[in-house]
Amino acid sequence: MFMITKKKKKSVLEVYAYGHHIPMSADKARRVIDQIRGRSYEETLMILELMCYRACYQIFKLVYSAASNASYNMSSKETNLIISKAEVNTSTSTNKLKPRARGRSYPVKKSTCHISIVMKDISFDDEYRKVDSLKSIKNLRWKKKHTTLGYHNIYSSGGIWDKK
């Protein structure tokens, strides 16, 4: 006798957007990707619009594509999306020849990169539940850990110079 059980299917919580052979250095793209990793979708769009790097436009298009994939495939709202994973990998480099003096040529290497962006819907995940802001403010207890040593503290009432 055999018992047949069905495996539970995991619901899709993440959406992907890949950009292959983007004509820029991987280091220049990483500089921008490090700024947006772990942020919300709306905050990411604002950051990418205000940064003045050439890589921002390509990454902006990928983030926008991943968000449209999420709204179409998972029917999720854009306010619930965060960037859970963002990677930049080096790709092939194209060799071009630049003409030089006396009929010679000089090789120029143009590097390319692959960019992958994974977005996650936080409304399905228990890890990112929103906490009521008033309750969280009431539970905080502010303690004064560091005291500043100003001019009036040094020279009055047993300061540094009163050691005789």
H/E element order: EHHHEEHH
How much of the sequence lies in strands comes to 25-35%
Q: How many strands, which pairing sense, and closed or not: the largest β-sheet?
A: 3 strands, antiparallel
End-to-end distance:
95 Å
Notable characteristics:
single chain; 3-stranded antiparallel sheet; 164 residues; 27% strand; alpha+beta
SSE layout and pairing:
Layout (H helix, E strand, L loop, with lengths): L13 E9 L3 H11 L4 H10 L4 H19 L7 E19 L5 E17 L11 H7 L11 H5 L9
Antiparallel strand pairs: 1-3, 2-3
Helix pairs in contact: 2-3
Question: Can you summarize this structure?
Answer:
The chain is elongated and about 65 Å long.
Q: What would your notes on this structure say?
A:
With 164 residues, the protein is α+β, with helices and mostly antiparallel strands. Helix content is 32%, strand content 27%. The protein is built from five helices and three strands. Strands 1-3-2 form a three-stranded antiparallel beta sheet. Helix 2 packs antiparallel against helix 3 (55-73).
